[in-house]
Amino acid sequence: MSGVAQNNRAKLARMAHQIADFFRAYPQDEASRAIADHINHFWTPRMRADFLAGPAPDDPLLKGAAPLIKPGRADRAPA
């Protein structure tokens, strides 16, 4: 994997953690659904594909959200 792709996945992971931090006060199931809803609504298919292709999240809220995130499409050649 190129450095650009790795940096992109790191940035997406950081963004996902910021979203999780916002919903952390919610009950866990509700927070995970809200995180997935936010990502599905505001992230492009490419962003979702790159995020889901990265390492599995270690945050429990993101672990719960990951299966609810719509798979994107990696329609661009890797950098």
SSE layout and pairings?
Elements: H1 3-23, H2 28-42, H3 45-53, H4 60-65
Summarize the structure.
The chain has helices at 3-23, 28-42, 45-53, 60-65. It is mainly alpha-helical.
Number of helices: 4
Number of strands: 0
Using only CA atoms, what is the Rg? 12 Å
How would you classify the helix and strand content by structural class?
Answer: mainly alpha
Explain what this protein looks like in three dimensions:
The chain is mostly helical and 79 residues long. 65% of the residues lie in helices and 0% in strands. The protein has 4 helices and no strands. The termini are close together.
Short descriptors:
79 residues, mainly alpha, 4 helices
